[in-house]
Fold this sequence. Notes:
The structure is a homodimer. By secondary structure, chain A is an alpha/beta fold. Chain A has helices at residues 3-9, 23-32, 54-71, 81-94, 103-114, 128-133, 135-143, 157-162, 169-178, 180-185, 201-208, 217-231, 260-271, and strands at residues 13-17, 38-42, 75-78, 98-100, 121-126, 148-153, 189-192, 213-216, 253-256, 278-282, 295-298. Chain A is globular and about 55 Å long.
Amino acid sequence: xxxxxxxxxxxxxxxxxxxxxxxxxxxxxxxxxxxxxxxxxxxxxxxxxxxxxxxxxxxxxxxxxxxxxxxxxxxxxxxxxxxxxxxxxxxxxxxxxxxxxxxxxxxxxxxxxxxxxxxxxxxxxxxxxxxxxxxxxxxxxxxxxxxxxxxxxxxxxxxxxxxxxxxxxxxxxxxxxxxxxxxxxxxxxxxxxxxxxxxxxxxxxxxxxxxxxxxxxxxxxxxxxxxxxxxxxxxxxxxxxxxxxxxxxxxxxxxxxxxxxxxxxxxxxxxxxxxxxxxxxxxxxxxxxxxxxxxxxxx
Amino acid sequence: xxxxxxxxxxxxxxxxxxxxxxxxxxxxxxxxxxxxxxxxxxxxxxxxxxxxxxxxxxxxxxxxxxxxxxxxxxxxxxxxxxxxxxxxxxxxxxxxxxxxxxxxxxxxxxxxxxxxxxxxxxxxxxxxxxxxxxxxxxxxxxxxxxxxxxxxxxxxxxxxxxxxxxxxxxxxxxxxxxxxxxxxxxxxxxxxxxxxxxxxxxxxxxxxxxxxxxxxxxxxxxxxxxxxxxxxxxxxxxxxxxxxxxxxxxxxxxxxxxxxxxxxxxxxxxxxxxxxxxxxxxxxxxxxxxxxxxxxxxx
Lengths: 299, 299
């Protein structure tokens, strides 16, 4: 193996999200790949993406991806469902790297888990923009001809997760309302198609019933990233990262495009700990020569 | 009166907000000033402001204000509470116009309505950023030495308003939770310090009790704009606008920085009608010569 290959193996994995929600994907990657280092970018200056247009989401996604690529990463994870739904081909074109989104892995896992059924029924819950894009339905249809699919948006789930109302009666009541069609449809598997939803996993599981497989698209993404690193012989070989990693420790770097304080606060709610290394940056993508135009604005 | 004065009188009033919430301020202005024309800018590409930093909110607010100023307006209303709280001095410096925010008017009206009490008690509900800025407390304190003040943030009220859940049991239950300290504090007046909250007015009124004065800061703002136009002799004198105005008719122009479809949909929920004239634009403020760099991206 050449020194170059060795260098590539030991680069961190880049993760970008529109804000804090992707931290659930970071956690899933961290749990699955304890020897890897991560660089996370949350585009908190421009969150949320779920209510923005295709052109705008594509532009932001490319700027974020180029920023992470400029830092030196071996693979890019697009943790944001909206960006995965709308901009994956553009992102792939703009960075010369393997790119893994969350929608394909979530859809494929749903199909895998229902493949023994004669009449597989799959539900998807996601933001308005992701549901409107039909990205999950298309990805499921590509992997299964006979699955029956139902998609619903749950706009209040994101603010409920950010409030950390994970067991309040209001959350149960709202979940019952949002998920009634899913329950009536009698799904076998339900894809949590928004990065915030795993925070409300218990409420959702109790609402749809214990017999329904809940699919965390971040976990499904981590499984595919794991397989890809093995296939391409890109697993980290540095001894320093082995066996002693904690979530948010100083081997992982977090960048936000605004309001680092709030990000740290919500990270603590979601992960139980604040990032050891967190920095606010401006992200302008790269110029024609591939040189990043980013500029650090605060620590 | 010179032709120039006559021209200035008949210019529209500019309104900017971070998104759709400012439509409640537009409605209040429209109701109060039926002879005026309005130009509304919703910065939907960068909404929400309430979770962003001071520097970012200032930059966005100035770009939006300069965009509206470049179209020709006689007065600028900053409908966004966060921008009013954080950026009003910077906005005033950047445009050579009278600028009216929502916080000063809301605070002054609260003081006016409680001035006969020996022990006036005023509550404020707003976004996290507005509450943290203490802008309402400072404005109330400037107008009243003895008022007792309580401030609370109600993060779920914005998504509940956008879902149009104006009478759902979950909304009542959440309101009861958020407003319990306000109720215990026994306020005389309660300022609705976020543009979305008037949509939930009935729920809020029932939760705090019928004897509490609810102050819509958009209505308070419209009253001060009315007084200012009279004082400066800037009331519209065109016969064409008199007595036949409808909300969102074709004398008012609406601009958004992204996702015009979603804006129209929420406008219909909030106002019962869609804007006749709605355009998506990019807002880059003006260059050193005062020339707007805006660029139209879609119709």
